[in-house]
What we know:
single chain, alpha+beta, GMP Synthetase, Chain A, domain 3, 3-stranded mixed β-sheet, 3 strands, 57% helix, 18% strand
Amino acid sequence: MGYPRTSRISEEIKRIVSQLMMNELKDPRLSPLTSIVGVEVTKDLRYANIYISVYGSQEEKENSLKALQNAAGYIRKEIGRSLKLRYTPELLFKIDQSIEQGMYISDLISKVTKKDAEDGRENDV
């Protein structure tokens, strides 16, 4: 169970970073299909792990991650301006693979159920 304050700060950071990505970051490397999946702030509020999801190729994912890492100073400054904290957390961007893994597992389940349905029809005949 996390602390209520850190979870509130995580949600505010998520909101601010999402807004900055949509409106203010103009880096051409940043894919338009990039979204913030989650933010985890450490208990001491020194670091914020920001998990991003990018729909596209591996190259687009890497370019979007590099663009966000290059803009981390600007994003941190804007977070510090918006949130009144003693320390503005250092931002660590990470690619979140959970959506791709979920799609892969869903595809495997679909294939297995389809194969079972076909085998069931063959056994009935």
